[in-house]
Amino acid sequence: MHEKIAYRKQLLYFSVNEIRIEYGDFPILADIKEWSLNYFLLMSAPQGGGEGGAGTMLVQFVPIILIFVIFYLLLIRPQQKKQKEHKQLLAALKKGDKVVTNSGMFGVISSINEEKNLVVLRVADDVKLEFMKSSIAGKVD
After folding, report:
1. 91-139, which class in CATH?
2. What is the rounded CA–CA span in Å between residue 120 and residue 128?
3. What pLDDT score was predicted for residue 59?
């Protein structure tokens, strides 16, 4: 007794001792132990009907492309915009600006050393601290 299964214009016949796969006019006989290999061959067999392989490849890559687009729009683009704004903020710093550092230290800029990329902040009357210019988080109004 054989069980007949049709899949993508290919026929599979299953019995207890053998598997027979017919693809078009080419029958393939196999022992039950070789079923997984023949199943793989069946699934990788080219499709009939003149279908193009390039179209199906494109359809398979659409979800991956959409994931990259979503990552770009939700993660990469906003981060680049934020970095650009921070760079403009650092370029516009001048003496007397009230700023906050990344560590949460508030102060007033008393001097800027462009060569060493340093900023001297006055945090109290006689207390001045040096910070890297890149450690300035933003201006305080």
Report:
1. mainly beta
2. 6
3. 81
pLDDT score of 39 more than 50: yes
Whole-angstrom distance, CA of residue 24 vs CA of residue 46: 11
Of 134, 107, 135, 132, whose CA–CA distance to 121 is shortest? Answer: 107
Secondary structure (DSSP) of 23-51: ETTEEEEEEGGGHHHHHHHHHTSPPSTT-
pLDDT digits (tens, 9 = 90+) for 20-37: 555 555 555 544 445 555
Cβ neighbours for 140, distance < 8 A, ≥ 6 positions apart:
98, 99, 100, 106
Where do the domains of the chain lie? 3-43, 91-139
Alpha helices in 72-121 (DSSP H): 77-91
- Taken as a whole, the chain contains a residue count of 141
**Other Cβ atoms within 10 Å of 109 Cβ, number:** 20
